[in-house]
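From the shared-data thread, chain only:
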Amino acid sequence: MAEPVLRELRDGVLLVTLNRPEKKNAFDDRQWNALRDTLDEAREDRAVACLVVTGAGKDFSAGQDLAAFGGSLEPTDDGKIGGYPGCVEALYRFDKPLLAAAKGVGVGIGATFLFHCDVVYVGESIRLRLPFVGLGLVPEAASSYLLPALIGSQRAAELLFTAEWIDAAKALEVGIAARVFPDDQLLEATLARARAIAEFPVSALQGTKRTLLAARAAGVRAAHDAEIDGMAALAGSPENMEAIAAFLEKRKPDFKQFRSG
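Structure, as tokens:
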């Protein structure tokens, strides 16, 4: 079985590749746990100055693999929190420069992950989406705080309330992406920037990242807690079940049936 996350360390830059291309790099528990461990180990490894995350094949990540949904707050056999909860906690505490090279589809966590990155470069093929209202749910991964902080409250609200697709031009316009590259140049351009960053002292890079994390820590935690409460209230609701059924049946969901009056 292929490794769900690939790692390659060179010149102080750890290249991390989400490796389920046949599933558009959608997350199952193995990939959640592998990315969690990669982030935690890279924090402690003095040989790692900077981390770049990308996706194998044509896409960054299609989000949670609904056919392999799992993960909970229960510890895994190694005593760590598994699945999505453990991975996002590792992401929240990752205290070194984090860059993304994203192309193709980025849905759900495939989009919200980018809001945690210090620099985001996208390919011309990028198509991001925040699908949560369309699933009868609320945002995730502290995106309800990070996205408004990144692009402004009105633009963030528009994207969250409409669940519209975000192409490369839109991602650049609103500030989700720093630059757009042709897909075949994207990864090398991102690695070149990462190598330039990695020339500086790891202690200074890590210290600088910690100041950035400290400035937003309270907002991230408050948003995370509110999102968890919202998810708990709405997961399994009639609207959420209709959204899932519509997805599986490849049809448009009918939410009007749940409106009273």
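The chain has nine helices and nine strands.
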